[in-house]
Design brief:
The complex is a heterodimer. Helix content of chain A is 34%, strand content 14%. By secondary structure, chain A is an alpha+beta fold. In chain A, helix 2 packs antiparallel against helix 6, helix 3 packs antiparallel against helix 5 and helix 5 crosses helix 8. Chain B has 18 helices and 21 strands. Chain B starts with 11 loop residues before the first helix and ends in a 14-residue tail after the last strand. The chains are: A alpha+beta, B alpha/beta.
Chain lengths: 254, 645
């Protein structure tokens, strides 16, 4: 067992609202348990700030078990911090050193405007989903579940893509603020499954068009999205997205 | 008030089929003129909003998160039950119905539970059609696993992320309706009040959490799908934002609250590690399929482990007590949750716990890894093992997990009739928010089933019964006096909260409330403790309203103010739970009264006096709530002492 308590210096981005310019503020924290999660460390700081009559740091969080996709901090220059395949809420303080300075920023991408401090608006993702991220099947008219056999490998690969939690780390990590990994994960899930076939072409065209319309950048294959994705969504999905898009553009009707 | 459950007449297996074919309908032309408000976008809310919109109703959906996809259903791990009998192991609608009634310790309504079992198969079909990537066999067909409290394999799953995949399925259906304009989505909005016009629910007041502005929304019906209230315990497996506020406002407007004290304590969660702890993480019950639960036989060995002088591996096989296998040979590690949780508590109370706090037991995969190989275990539980490693810094492939029970689910909730309507006309409650089909204890993998059953396959039919009378109502104006009054009340309450400007944080009050609830209304309850707890909560509530400090302003993004409103409601709900636990002096399911146990220490029901649903009517905070009883009548099952031995 290492040290159980550490002291930290935090440089946190503070921004009152979307219009505010924003700035870094520095805070000192003492005796933080290494067993605490990163967000619990922020909780401790916020409790102190409130008692001191100061404004606590606003940040998104909910499930705190790495699945809802709500937490979204940029920690020491990395989306969700130093651990790979880990959301901020699952990051624990044992991965930091005593006396360390930690810089905490919001996701920075034009399509994700800051609401306050570390909280950003990610509804652009919802708009992309609404553009085509579904199989058009009304409730009640589905055939028996086992009427559609699906090879296990396809189901597994579809699952790997479907595991995306929509946190936006891929966009934040990308120098172009591209949403290709997010979009490709959903397009791949359905492209790999028989249920997704009827709308395969129009889905990819619509989702990509919406993505472009909302101001996300282009993909230049730097791969930081994959590196920072807390769910290890593979960049090979982007290659599939490109193929799907090309084939749909060439022959959209068939 | 007289409770009418509106259970259709007829033989149990035919009730739903007949009712569905005769319930009143709203024609397509009229559906267009009817607006429905859905509060919450988890499995129940998202599926209901999508299904109702598909039918042609105009839907407004609300969630407090930044996207409907984030509702806490997303965190459900293990699976969803359905009576498909794909495994040819003798499953049937009746068996799922029976297991659910028995698992709930005979405190659920037969007709509802049978309906749930009947529609369970359709849920799987629907989700598969949506592209939900369920686990499959090599032949390409759907795979199943077993879960606690059953002897068949009827649980469908998507690795350890079944809730995520089902919710994303429902969210995709919802997204499709949003694109079509059939659903108007309000994210980062919280329902602050139900608006009543002439005795009917006619809308809500919602707070836009970004701007802080109050909004009026009208509808011909309001559906509460806001989930459970486990966060009244502060530490629970719920998400940080999970709250009772929508359900509680409904309760204060006249919706009676069913079985509030029925809480599920889940046996396999990560133990608390410190005072800073903000939530407890669940490890899926599916782990009990292959993991064996044990503690050392002797206190000395346990102490050595607690003090880090010994490791699990140092305890010889003969000195281990696999207490679930010993006490319940027929079900072994797969006993229902309430039984497993109490057994863990008992072992720890005897001083045989295995963490520094003494509050943990081992969940050991050594034998399963030896039998099946690491690859098989990794394929089954890989993501859960990783999660455990991330949180604790320990590798469960090498050393057993340490687990302890934690609050997970609330069987209690708004009382609803067969149509899922509360006692307020036009106000519905679905999913975990209603008092539901799980009686005094929910079986694993049944929450997802119930949420989606209510949303996809029950409410869309039953709501027509009420709405068929609303076809000539026309658009409901939000200028009506009732809206003005409700908005003013919400506004004044917020101002009052902000004006206290005391010294203590909202979080600190919440934590203190949680401690009271856990100590006196947790895994074991008795009259003395409950009586004391009631006063403690009243005192804490007074202290809250005189000394809480909320920073910032009303008309801005202010998460502390949101939280304060929720904690204020928990402080009222907590007292009702205590009241309910006091009145029910029997033990049943997750409700364990120390005064009522069998000689072996199992929960002892009292069917003669307590075979009823407690349905509480709000009566102001000064007065005592008023108890109404819905007597439970059992035709198809015989009430017996539950045994898993």
């Amino acid at each position: 067992m290492g040290i159980d308590n550490i002291s930290l210096t935090l440089k946190v981005w503070r921004q009152k609202n979307e219009a505010d310019k924003g700035h870094f503020e520095t805070y000192k924290l003492k005796e933080v348990s290494t067993h605490a999660s990163f967000l619990e460390m922020i909780d401790i700081l916020n409790e102190d700030l409130i008692v001191e009559g100061k404004d606590p740091i606003a940040f998104d969080h909910d499930c705190r078990e790495g699945i809802c996709g709500m937490c979204s901090m940029y920690i020491n220059g990395r989306a969700h911090g130093p651990q790979s395949a880990t959301t901020t809420c699952q990051l624990h303080m044992r991965h930091f050193n005593d006396g360390e300075t930690i810089t905490i920023e919001p996701w920075r991408a034009k399509p994700f405007p800051v609401i306050k401090d570390l909280t950003v608006n990610r509804s652009a993702f919802d708009h992309i989903m609404a553009a085509g991220g579904y199989v058009s099947v009304n409730t009640g008219n589905a055939p028996d579940g086992n009427a559609i056999p699906i090879p296990k490998e396809n189901a597994e690969e579809a699952f790997n893509a479907a595991a995306c939690i929509g946190c936006g780390a891929c966009v934040a990590a990308c120098k172009n603020a591209s949403a290709m990994l997010f979009v490709s994960a959903k397009v791949s899930q359905y492209a790999l499954l028989p249920q997704g076939q009827p709308e395969r072409k129009q889905r990819v065209l619509k989702m990509v068009a919406k993505m472009d319309e909302l101001g996300f950048g282009n993909c230049t294959n730097t791969g930081s999205c994959e590196a920072e994705c807390p769910k290890s969504i593979s960049i090979s999905n982007i290659a599939r997205l490109n193929r799907e898009y090309l084939s749909a553009s060439v022959a959209p009707g068939s | 008030m007289k409770l009418d459950a509106k259970i259709p007449v007829g033989a149990l297996p035919e009730k739903w089929t007949k009712y569905r074919s005769t319930v009143r309908l709203v024609s397509p032309g009229n559906k267009r003129k009817i607006e429905i408000i859905v509060v919450g976008t988890g499995l129940a809310g998202a599926s209901a909003a999508a299904a109702l919109a598909e039918l042609g109703y105009k839907v407004k959906a609300f969630c407090f998160q930044d996207s409907p996809r984030r509702a806490h259903s997303i965190a459900a791990q293990g699976g969803i039950n359905a009576a498909k009998n794909y495994q040819n192991d003798g499953d049937s609608v009746f068996r799922l119905f029976y297991d659910t009634i028995k698992g709930g310790d005979y405190r659920a309504r037969e007709a509802n539970v049978h309906r749930l079992a009947e529609v369970s198969g359709s849920i799987i079909d629907q989700c598969v059609a949506q592209g939900v990537p369920f686990a499959r066999e090599y032949g390409g067909l759907l795979d199943n696993r077993s879960f606690g409290g059953t002897q068949v394999s009827r649980t469908f799953y998507a690795r350890g992320q079944t809730g995520q995949q089902l919710l994303l399925g429902a969210y995709s259906a919802l997204s499709r309706q949003i694109e079509k304009g059939q659903v108007e989505m309000f994210s980062r909005h919280e329902m602050a009040e139900v608006v009543m016009v002439d005795g009917k629910a006619r809308g809500i007041i919602a707070r836009d959490l970004v701007s802080g502005k109050l909004e009026r929304h009208s509808g011909h019906a309001v559906v509460i799908a806001s989930g459970g209230y486990g966060n009244v315990f502060y530490l629970s497996t719920n998400a940080m934002g999970s709250n009772v506020t929508a359900a509680w406002k409904a309760h204060r407007q006249g919706a009676v609250f069913g079985n509030p004290c029925f809480t599920q304590i889940h046996p396999t969660c990560l133990p608390q590690s410190g005072e800073y702890q903000s939530k407890l993480t669940l490890m899926s019950e599916s782990l009990r399929n292959d993991g064996r639960v044990w503690v050392p036989k002797s206190k000395e060995d346990a102490q050595a482990i607690q003090q880090d002088r010994k490791k699990a591996a140092d305890i010889a096989e003969g000195n281990r007590d696999y207490y679930l296998e010993r006490k319940y040979p027929a079900f072994g590690n797969l006993v229902p949750r309430d039984v497993a949780s109490r057994a863990a508590k008992e072992a720890c109370d005897e001083g045989r716990g295995v963490s520094p706090t003494g509050l943990a037991v081992f969940l050991d995969f050594r034998d399963a890894i030896n039998r099946l190989g690491k690859d098989v275990i990794s394929a089954r539980y890989g993501n859960l093992f990783e999660m455990y490693d991330k949180i604790t810094g320990e590798n469960p492939y090498e050393t057993p997990m340490k687990i302890y029970p934690a609050v997970h689910y609330t069987m209690g909730g708004l009382w609803v009739d067969y149509n899922l309507m509360t006692t307020v006309p036009g106000l519905y409650a679905i999913g975990e928010a209603n008092f539901s089909d799980h009686g005094a204890n929910r079986l694993g993998a049944s929450a997802l089933m119930q949420g989606l059953a209510d949303g996809y396959f029950v409410l869309p039919y039953t709501i027509g019964d009420y709405l068929s009378d609303e076809i000539s109502t026309g658009k409901i104006s939000t200028d009506a006096e009732a809206f003005t009054t409700a908005e003013k009340a919400v506004d004044e309450r917020q101002k009052k909260l902000m004006s206290i400007n005391g010294k203590q944080t909202v979080e600190s009050f919440h934590r203190r409330l949680g401690k009271i609830m856990w100590e006196y209304c947790g895994m074991a309850r008795d009259e003395k403790g409950l009586t004391k707890a009631r006063q403690l909560i009243r005192d804490l509530r007074d202290e809250f309203w005189s000394d809480v400090r909320i920073p910032g302003n009303i008309n801005e993004f202010n998460p502390e103010l949101d939280k304060a409103g929720r904690v204020a409601d928990f402080l009222e709900l907590g007292e009702l739970m205590i009241f309910d636990a006091l009145v029910r002096s029997e033990s049943c399911g997750g409700h364990f009264r120390l005064e009522s146990q069998t000689p072996e220490g199992e929960a002892k029901r009292d069917d003669e006096n307590y075979a009823f649903v407690s349905a509480w009517e709000f009566n102001g905070l000064e007065g005592d709530p008023i108890l109404h009883k819905e007597n439970l009548e059992f035709e198809a099952v015989k009430l017996t002492q539950r045994s898993y031995k």
